[in-house]
Amino acid sequence: MHSTLGVLGGMGPLATADFYRKIVEETDAHCDQEHIPVLVYSLPDIPCRSTAIMDRGRSPLPRMIEGLRKLEQAKVEAIAIPCNTAHYWYRDLCKATSLPILHIVDAVAVELQRMSYQPRHLGLLATESTLAARIYHDRLAGHGYSFTVNAPDDREKLVVRAINLVKQGRPQEGGHLLELAVRKLLDRGVEAPILACTELPVALESIGSSLLSCCVDASRALAKAAVAWSTERAGMPAMTRAVLAPSRLAPAQSS
Amino acid sequence: MHSTLGVLGGMGPLATADFYRKIVEETDAHCDQEHIPVLVYSLPDIPCRSTAIMDRGRSPLPRMIEGLRKLEQAKVEAIAIPCNTAHYWYRDLCKATSLPILHIVDAVAVELQRMSYQPRHLGLLATESTLAARIYHDRLAGHGYSFTVNAPDDREKLVVRAINLVKQGRPQEGGHLLELAVRKLLDRGVEAPILACTELPVALESIGSSLLSCCVDASRALAKAAVAWSTERAGMPAMTRAVLAPSRLAPAQSS
């Protein structure tokens, strides 16, 4: 009997649907019954994470904790949050629950380590708030990576616009913009562009982009970590330890 | 504040992910916060519905009721079940809960009524157990529809095989088989082939099949009904009444 994974979702909803599909795809199963039980709580009215970080808007933390409570009551045994920006509140969320919370950046770190070559030069495609809060920079510090982001104008017109288009249900339009942003990073010598916002793989997948294969998809990395957690809980060896263990480096934090 | 929809899923998991995505796609929203709250419980170890109906295997009903209980405890206000065959136990499930359960065949009936032309000659692509239990035939009786299914050999080698391939994580292979089955129905004068198993649209979508546009996708119909239920609960007019009202014709039932 597999343990139940809880997904705190809705940030945004299409990205949550995409993440849950990736959990299914990443599970080595040949029939329904071999899959892992998952409880996905899509709570779309969580206040905007980016506005809270950048403009001191209403904090999403109380509503995220309400979501955690519902998942706890339903007896899930670990939590995954398919939203990179929400990890700004990772430590606060960990304080609010005794359940382990898989960290999306740790899942990406595991993914980078598993690549056939070892990229050192990473690209970050993310919300402005994920970049400003240094969620990836701080969590991956000490690994020797260098980070490149798009120029401010490209971030606004390509990356952030692509994210918003996915949230508006127009992923294909977002996909074409995002391809330009990825190509610009590759032209600057980036070896591994990280799709560090869970809307971004939705955009590229919606147009069947060939660029997906050269990007690291943080959402799929988290899905793999979730499946590995479940596999390990069921008594099989897995690679989740690195994802669950507290990083020696504190994540960027509010409060 | 929207009411929370509960999804009793995992039958199968990829079809559940697809259904949840369709809920998001069918919602008229321009940002995260305009989407509806959904709790998706993917419980893949529910015993096989087809085996229970055809070979008197272990009943899935007790485990489905356990799933309902968890959704009730989490305070959802209606239930959707993205599995056609599971609707064999619809009446038993309704007896086990005070929550309304959207019926997938009623959702398809609404969809048929909304089509620009009124198809009379329907095709049914489904599990053998959905056909044998006459889940669609009995629920749509009185509407004057005629039903055509594929020949037994084609059902086994094309339709059931496509369903199993999706469950095995090989939807593209299933998509190519399913296209043949749909074409054979169209050649026999079927006006509206109904994808009456939630794995089937996953198969066609995975290969970007042009045949999707001429099929009625029961999973998307149920997603539309779910969004309409939520919209109506939020005080806006909608079309869910036909889906929620008890049909004057009893569905095919176990006892």
What does this structure look like?
Two copies of one chain form a homodimer. Chain A is an alpha/beta fold and 255 residues long. In chain A, 47% of the residues lie in helices and 11% in strands. Chain A has twelve helices and seven strands. The first copy, chain A, has helices at residues 13-25, 49-55, 61-73, 90-96, 104-114, 128-132, 135-139, 152-167, 171-187, 200-206, 218-233, 241-244; strands at 5-9, 38-42, 78-80, 121-125, 146-148, 192-195, 216-217. In chain A, the strands form two sheets. In chain A, strands 5-4-6-7 form a four-stranded parallel β-sheet, sandwiched between helices. In chain A, helix 8 runs antiparallel to helix 9 (171-187) and helix 9 packs across helix 10 (200-206).
Short description:
The structure is a homodimer of 255-residue chains. Chain A is α/β, with parallel strands linked by helices and 255 residues long. Chain A has helices spanning 13-25, 49-55, 61-73, 90-96, 104-114, 128-132, 135-139, 152-167, 171-187, 200-206, 218-233, 241-244; strands at residues 5-9, 38-42, 78-80, 121-125, 146-148, 192-195, 216-217.
Reported for the largest beta sheet of chain A, the result is: 4 strands, parallel
Helix content of chain A: 40-55%
Low-confidence stretches of chain A: 245-255
Q: Given the structure, what is the number of helices of chain A?
A: 12
Care to count the β-strands of chain A?
7
Query: Mean of the pLDDT scores of chain A?
Result: 92
Estimated radius of gyration of chain A: 17 Å
Distance between the termini of chain A: 39 Å
